[in-house]
Amino acid sequence: MERVADKPRVLIARRMPEATIARARAEFDAVIADRDLNADAVIEACHAKGIEAILSGKKAGFTASDIARLPASVKIIANPSAGYDHMDVEAARGRGIIVTNAPDALTDCVADFTLLLILAACRRAAEYEAIMRDGWRRPFGLPDMLGRKIGGCRLGIVGMGRIGRAVAHRARAFGMTILYHNRNRLPPELEAGATYCATLAALLPQSDILSLNLPGGSDVLMTREAFARLPRGAVFVNAARGSLVDEDALIDALQSGQLFAAGLDVFRREPDFDERLAKLPNVFLTPHMGSATVATRNRMGFDALDNIAAVMAGKPPINPV
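^ that's the sequence the OP posted. Answer follows.
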């Protein structure tokens, strides 16, 4: 591939919306992958094509040893999402490679989607849809197929960052009371009347509905003991990271009635998720689509390109991590 003069060579190492691809081609000497590249493929392309910037994602999953194998030409790895737990940021810094993310791009759509999960789980959306798709020939009376009213419920939010606060803002419009657990208590203007719980153990017994809205990591947050601390008949939703949940414990809680229902957009293994969850009628499932709108996916790509453009122009990154 012949180099374009005076333009930084950028590797788009994952499938992106066409608007992002078009902008990358217009502004950079862009090498466009036709699939999501793993770390080995990214490293090979960087060496072969003199790549200076990488727009990558979770599939690449750069470990410290992967970072060590990148050529010296690479100056920045731009993540088009808020999360960056799939890569060793410290190893990148050690090599002088800037890592960026897109912390604001997903906030509104993921918060909207979290409310979708809450409503769908509480109002038995999966069961109602299944009835309709099966032909609905049996009438239902007043005692039948009852869900949970969310107005007046206590919503426990674990992780009160941008998305958690946006979820709280939306939930207040439904008449929910907001409680939260965070590493640090927020200032009053950001709490906006929410009640702070210093520990997860303190939050759980007070949460009629529990929403995870924090980054993933190595620790399982929702263990068998954690689910047992929730009020019996609580609702659990997760649009954050599947790695935070012991799915065996989740399934047991759903089968035993400890949980009334769950709304899940993320799973420990994706896309080969635990299909036992799909067999439970009281689970509303979506395939990791929290940010899946045209506007949000375009902004995710544009934010990554903005960071690349800044660094390639010798300016500070816009969203360093």
